[in-house]
Amino acid sequence: MNVTQGVTDPGEDREIYDLLAVVWRGRWLVLSLGAAFALSGALYAALATPWYRAEVLMAQARDRPSDGLMSQFGGLASLAGINLGSNDNAEPLALLSSLGFAREFIEEENLETVLLAREWNAAEKRWKGPEKDWPDVRDAVEYFDEEVRRVVQDKKTGLVTLAIEWKDPAVAAEWANKMASRLNDRMRERAIAESTENIRYLKTEMAQANLISLQQSIGQILELELQKLMLARNNQQYSFRI
Q1: Does pLDDT of 141 surpass 50?
Q2: 8-19 as b/e, with b when 16 or more CB fall inside 10 Å?
Q3: Nearest alpha-carbon partner for 140 in 173, 185, 162, 109
Q4: What's 149's DSSP letter?
Q5: pLDDT of res. 153
Q6: d(CA 213, CA 9)
Q7: Does residue 24 carry a pLDDT above 60?
Q8: Residue 54 and residue 164 in contact, taking contact as beta carbons nearer than 8 Å
Q9: What value does the mean pLDDT take over residues 81-88?
């Protein structure tokens, strides 16, 4: 049996030695850079303004009076131009995520200068810079939509999370709760206006109907609209339960 003893190439040893020598000569530079990055990170953590996240978890309200009669009278109601409604939360979710809803909230709460505080001169009560460069509510809405408000729906459970991120935790919680409450208020107002108009229309149609069967069908739809109106008027958490 022949055994061959491995022999190290002198050239390889020389390359390793040169590499180690380079690392050793630059050790202070490496240490200095590492210390500088560590110090920068520590300063940023100490000086940066912390942001807080307030979340409101919302479950779709289930107590709708239209579910039982939807299949029975849905066709007739559609012919009359009446929406019996459903448990679908697509409309309130779209409203909650919309720029229009954000704008109304910002204007009602006077948040324009709060959101754009970097551009606001609090001492002089005016925007910084020349007037032609002053921001308006659209800039506040854009900032609010991109940096402050988050709306996420869990596709499996249907639960909706409204998150507000802000520098003050109490303010973040206040905004989140107010937006959730105003969403229910807006949907209630829409439902009340819609049902009120539908009731007026149905009463007129029932008075003009010649067939007893048609009067009975219209009467049942009218009863359903009255239930919807009563529910909207007496339920503060109309679309979502907080």
Answers
A1: yes
A2: eeeeeeeeeeee
A3: 109
A4: E
A5: 92
A6: 104
A7: yes
A8: yes
A9: 53
pLDDT of 114 higher than 50 = yes
The HSE-up count of residue 169 (CA atoms within 13 Å, CB side) is 2
Greater model confidence, 155 or 32: 155
Pick the more confident residue, 164 or 199. Answer: 164
Burial grade of 119 (CB within 10 A; 0-12, 13-18, 19 or more): middle
Q: What is the CB-side half-sphere exposure of residue 241 using CA atoms within 13 A?
A: 7
**3-state SS string for 87-148:** CCCHHHHHHHHCHHHHHHHHHHHCCHHHHCHHHEECCCCEECCCHHHCCCHHHHHHHHHHHH
Q: Pick the closest to residue 70 from 224, 205, 209, 222 (CA basis).
A: 224
Q: How far apart are CA 103 and CA 183, in angstroms?
A: 13
Closest to 50 (Cα-Cα) out of 132, 167, 182: 167
The pLDDT of 112-129, averaged and rounded, is: 94
Identify the three-state secondary structure at position 189: helix
Residue 108: C-alpha distances to residues 101, 116, 178, 179, 192 (Å)? 11, 16, 11, 11, 22
Longest dimension (CA), the chain: 115
Q: Which helix (H) or strand (E) holds 161?
A: strand 160-166
Residue with tokens 């609010």: 144
What pLDDT, on the 0 to 100 scale, is given for residue 230? 84
CA distance 122 to 102: 24
pLDDT of res. 79: 45
Per-residue model confidence as pLDDT tens digits over 44-58: 555 667 899 999 999
Write down the pTM of the prediction. Answer: 0.68
